[in-house]
Amino acid sequence: MLGDKTLPSDFDPEWYRKTYPDVGIGSLSPQEHFRRFGALMGRFPSAERMMQALQSESAPQQPAPAFSQQPGGAIDIPEVAAILDGPIIPPPSDIAKLSSKFLVSARETILLTPSATAVLCKGQEIARISSQHMANPDEWAAVTAPLRALSNMLEAHNAVALHMRAGNSSSAQPLELTGDVGSCVHPALQDGPLAVCDAWFVADSTLRLMFGTGETDEDRPPAVMRAWQCSSEKPLRMKAVGAVDLAGQGPALCDLELLDPFMPVLLELCDQNDLTVGMALLPFPSLLRGGLHGPELMAALPAGRGMTAFWQFSDQLLREGFGQDRPRSIGALEVDLETATGAEAIFGADMQHWLAAVFGLRLSARDTPADPDALQTPGRTYLRDMLASDAVLPAYVRSVTPKTDGPGTTLVLPADSIPTLGALVSHRLPAALPKTGLTGPFIVADIIGRRGRWSVSLPMTAGFLAELQPRKGVLACPILQTRDTKASGAAGRGDTSVPAHLSIALRSFGPEHEAEQLMPISPDGDIRLLRAATPDPAPLTLVLGVSDLDQTRRFLQALKGQIGCDQVDVLAYAQKDRGRDWHETLRDVLTGEFPEGRIALEYANRGHALDLAAAWVQTDLVLLADDAILLPDQRTLSTLSTMLAADPSVASASCALMREKPARKGTIVEMATAGVFPTHVSLMTAPQLVFGEPDCLAALPMAVFPVVANTLDLVLIRRSALEDGTARRKADGIAYGRDGAADIRFGLDVLAGGGQNLCTTAVRCGTLAPPRPVRDEMDSIALSFMRPRRWDDILPSVTLLRELV
Amino acid sequence: MKITVIIPNQAWANTAGVRIRYNRIAAPLEAAGHSFDLVPIDSLRAASLPKSDVWIISKCHDARALLLAQVLKSRGVLVGVDFFDDYYSQKNNSRFVHLRSWFRSILPSLDFGLCSTPNMQATLKQLAPALPCHVMNDPFAQFDPEVIAGHVERNALRTRETKIVDIGWFGIGDNPHFTLGLHDLSAMGQILTRCRQAGYTPRLSVLTNQRALTVERLELLSRLSVPMALEEWSEERESALIAQSLFCFLPVNAQHFSVVKSLNRAVTTLSSGAQVLSAGFPLYAPLKDYVYRNPISLLRDLEKDKLKMRRETLAALGKLMQSSADPKREVEKAVSFFKKLKPRKATKWPARGVAGVIHGVRSSGDVHKGVQRLGHLSVSSPASKAKLNYDVDPRMSKDGQTLDIHLSARGRDALPEDLKTRTQEVAKQDPKAPQRFSLRLTRKEIPALPRLSAETLPGSRLQRLEFYDREMDMVQAVLSRLYTESAMVRSEMASPYWSDLGVAQ
Q1: Tell me: the pLDDT tens digits for A764-780?
Q2: Partner-chain contact B259 A379, CB within 8 Å
Q3: Within a 13 Å sphere around the CA of B454, how many CA atoms are in the beta-carbon half?
Q4: Chain A residues within an 8 Å CB radius of B186
Q5: Vertex A42: Cα angle to A36 and A45 (nearest 5)
Q6: Complex ipTM
Q7: Which residues of chain B does A523 touch, with a Cβ-Cβ cutoff of 8 Å?
Q8: Half-sphere exposure (Cβ direction) of A670: Cα atoms closer than 13 Å
Q9: N-term to C-term CA, chain A
Q10: What is the dihedral of CA A582, A584, A588, A589, to 10 degrees?
Q11: What is the phi/psi pair of residue A600, to 5°?
Q12: Do residues A577 and A604 touch, judged by C-beta distance below 8 A?
């Protein structure tokens, strides 16, 4: 029967209000508060009752004593009354009581209605269905749809093993649940007074459900909600993890102490006769707020839709992952051990058990240190062995062996990431992959708040991108690799697309350590930053924007240290004529540093310099730079050269530029630019892409990624791309020099020609140039390059960033 | 044998590291007829260095230690470093550039290394294969089987009766550079919920340092799936917590910094009367017969009255402790190790010219004073901003063509005669101020001088970073011109790439 809603005879309203300060906050009387919340939270109704409980050994929770030691004597463990100084955070006694109260093990009522039928899971009665529901096929389908979904999810392990037993029978028959995967929630739990109106994790494995919106004074009908969960250790059994009496009005809360934060949770709603009204399956509870997959839901669907978005997304995942006969795309999971500590979520036992139980996947280690001289540390060995060992895994997980070949795709995860549900259930990931693998889209989330911060979609068109990532540090992004070496083939432009984020990177969003902000990879280690081999130095032409002679001198000295030769052609340009003396001094400075090279001086703007350079340059590589650029990292030029040499399609390469700005008594360093990205669509005239320079360091702190365009402040360019670009400009009748956004125009010309513009945050430079206004660029009169018909060319070729907050 | 441990300063003598590692061996050393001293590095003078057979440099990651090691090596005594933590093997980490530089600089002066775990020894073997290295386990303070048994039995009885499991976690909750401490507790604390599967209610008490209690870490703690109380750490509270806990939870992550740590926390827990539940990297494997990896096993043993550490097993645990953490035994092993080492022959250092320190971005007045006390030169660079009484203070003119060098008497005395005669005494405004001299050199006199015009540029951090190496090269070139030969080390207390590079404070 339902819980008694009357007050205890010894209820003391005044004591209750004083003892629990939150009671006074709302408009409810102490009596009403106790009826609605206090009783459920296990609070005491009176001082006498509390003293009785405290004196009892079985008191659910007592304040933790402060610890002290008698001088020179034995340790004294004080009684509660002897506490002198309270703890910083006292034990949350209410939650402890809540747990013990709600962990009901089974139905307490006896099946009295002969016509009703009990649904059993390993002897546990998880539903009691009336004859009316059973007689109506639609009702039957609606009530049992969540059970069908659960059965499908754990089908591989025959996990649910459901039976049914009629009220007038003593024997149980297997419950046949056939048909398509329907909705995972019964309408009664989705809409109306008994609907779950919110759910979130209040602790790592404590899920709080909220019922009742509080918008109506109407009482909810008598009802009880019970919750069960399969543990990932023993998926064949369902255990009760909570229950709540829903009768009354206003919000009702229920904390479920989950056995596992990932395994599906089954909710059953019962009427006053303890007959099942409806059920709901939370197939992936970790999608809820505070769960590890919460950011995925946040990225997939617009905010503010509450549980509707959750049910909708869950249904989509169920249909995709468990409603089809063909195998899912991901056939194996690997985690890159570079920088792994073992404390990351991917190494958690719950995660590994869940992957095996629901998806039949067993995580294995990708342990190929990029640096062959790296220490083979005991920690790394332990992690590799732990993933390979069967010793600590449940029997059914041991039966899931890592698959190393055969059809299907391997998802290689960075150590700080977990796979998304979308990737795990998908049947639509590309099958034709280059041997080096393809980088894929991912979400970046705050590891503390578990909120999504960035959605990062790396284009799948550049197979070489995986090989261009930094050798050290955590893998920049998830990588899809084929396991079938025979089926391997290079994916060309437009061949592939990934319909879902592949992983969620869980990172701390505190400020970057200043040493790493300026040099993410230590300068006293290896000279080679990227996985790809560094090419031999090639002849170079410098196209230098000059604004100040001292700066020019400083820049040339710094650059010379990186080029390592005197034979560099220099085309210097200044915005305005500063007179003959200045001109001669500049020439002296240039010839002083590079006496063997050709020297030319021009008056031009930056875009015009592109046009001039195309006609003047004789070397294959052109470095466009401004004398305001600072080169603190000796590996800058070699890294850009490596990026350019990685593939003939790479037309330009640049790196993140950092700027210093005054703050309080000193200065802070912030990002100036790390490439131009498409940011949104403008509907001001016709639909047009808008481009900007978002601060992407949090999303891509150490990576190589394609952008729409690189800054012309510092960029290494292929001469052929420059020539192609200027030819295009001539054909259009608009030279770069006439364009205020020459960098974007050049970048788009590169893309139009099938090329790529790459930027990296693994090496960073500085700039002394004053801050520019925030860029929000579009071709407002639609002259040439940003017309909607070109979006299909642009978007699949560049990195797409979306801030989720 | 006389053993001297060099520590950073007098205050350091009161830290837990010194208390656990050195104070516990002092008495057994003296009982064995040896002498032992803790000496702050800032108290050392060149003229009055104490006599000692073995010098152990401990947690002195600065240029004073580099010079002191050279001085001691030249005197023919044994010099070593006690490597507490691994800040040297993370080759890709920009934060530890200065520490790796310190390690590389001190290595040639060392006769031995000390450390507290085989994993740290293995790391040092990879980083410095030729350096003899000895593992000196952290000794335990006391091991009283009767007291331990009392705590174990009382806690077991209470737990069985109340079905409430008291769990302790204690220690430093944070590290400025690594995620560990409370992060490990958060990451691996899920295992504690398994107590519920065994029918027990877990109750966690956390003792940690206040610095660790940031908003982010408090949020992590609030997410723990077991009820928790939090108090600030103190030695007394730690003892009391362990004594009243059925077990202490000691999660360890697998990053290299953590896996080379000592067994100290497990030894303390066991010798204070609580069981150990560990998770993650098996750091405490040497004590595996007394360490649980799963709370359900622990609680099953509790119900069977067969806990791993109980009255009947304490004798065996005592023997294990004696073999791995007994102060007397550790002293014997260490002394035996030292006796096998042969000190190098005494030689003059520096053989010619001068020695000293070039101050970088993040040096300190303590280093400056310490170097001068050791009788060597304290040299400024364009990067060093502190106004100190440097022995050599080169200042480039704005046009970069001349160099005015300010010298102390010691700096001037070390000059060759031709330069000494060119110096001029600087008029003193304060009669009590030390005597100063100046010397002007032109660019032509220093061919190796890098082309530098830092004075003409604003001192932004990013510029300073770009100029750092060139500025240091400039100082080295100046010193080479002044003294012909010089043995100099750079003084950086932090990565040169870290924090404000000498800009507005």
Answers
A1: 999 999 888 888 887 65
A2: yes
A3: 23
A4: 204
A5: 75
A6: 0.87
A7: 94, 97, 497
A8: 12
A9: 45
A10: 20
A11: -140, 145
A12: no
